[in-house]
Sequence to fold (406 residues):
Amino acid sequence: MYHDPDSGNPINVGVQTWLEYKNTLDFVTRMGVSSNGSMQFTPLTTKYVDFQSGKPVEGYAAPENSDRVSALHKYLELCEKYEDYLLPSFDQFPAPDAIPEDLLMPFGQFVEKYGIAAAVPQMWQATVQGLGDFLEIPTMYTMQAMGVPMARALLGKARAVVPPSGALYELYGRIADFLGDDVFYSSTVVSATRDGEHGVSVVVRGSGNLSTEIQAKRLLIAIEPTAENMSPFLLDDAETDVFDRFGYFTVYAGILRHPSLEPSTSYSNVVPVTPTNYTIFPSPPQLGRMDYLGGTKDLFSFTAVGTEKDTPDTMKALIRGAIDKLIATGVVKGSSGELTFPAFADHGKMHSWFSVDDVRGGYVQKQMALQGRKSTWYTGAAFGSPYSTALWAYNDELLPKLIKGI
Fold:
């Protein structure tokens, strides 16, 4: 969350809304937060630009609205067909010999098979940009990142909500009040002992370099299970076998300021190809778009995707280079002032996925079989979905299993 000091408005960074999914908005109500707000949109003029060269992509036009809506309806029907396999988790994912071929084919082939290319640019703008070369990965993961909740919201079949204040952080502030002192903030797990019979012991280092040992019967992990994140937990062979096979993409979002960028404008990164080809997109590392935020004339939101080798510094340099090219080609008039980042969020490795061979080899089932192993349970996008509300639905299913027998 960023508070614009000039307008006084809160600006959400990254997640912009809660997507209606089953009854999970009851959680917001339980925390005393209203979900009756509506998202405010500033009308923008889109400039389609190749950020590699800084040149406009002549002749490019977004799909006709009727074609986009028709394709998105078709996509939603297909997502609903496989919804229970992917949402709110992979608990109901079919056995390797029963997986529908639709879910395993590269998403680009899936798009061609069902003739839904007109929906793809909006999907890229909404969420699937974070999947990097999303047309090459198995369709099941694109459906997880841009599935039923988002498609319904884009078609007006489900709500996309915010508090009246517009600040999603309001919910997390209420949660912090509810938890009180039972939380270690700005802390790092430095070691852990996990035992299937005797529970767990976790050593946490917090402010002042003070360490605290926490003993519990069960452990719930909600972070991405990357090698870096999981190193303090001394994984066994079964856990390592699963987590080492995950692929990830690194995602960055935030707010930038440059006085030469035009108000009321969206700069969208487009590959210079045939104007009606909607299945070719920039590959990581890439800056996807910059959108004027309104209120303050030179504030723009951005989303960018890196490779596993990228860092916040390399991505800031990439963004700076893209803007310099836009200035050099005259797409952006003038060059006064410097680029700054009032808010820069490194979301780290996201959108975990297995290769098709690993999915066929039963690794989704091996992953879900880790639930409860060594008194450890998992939630979060790697085990459920990247949508907050879908994760809340998964937690409703998971927590009774976690506490059973305590």
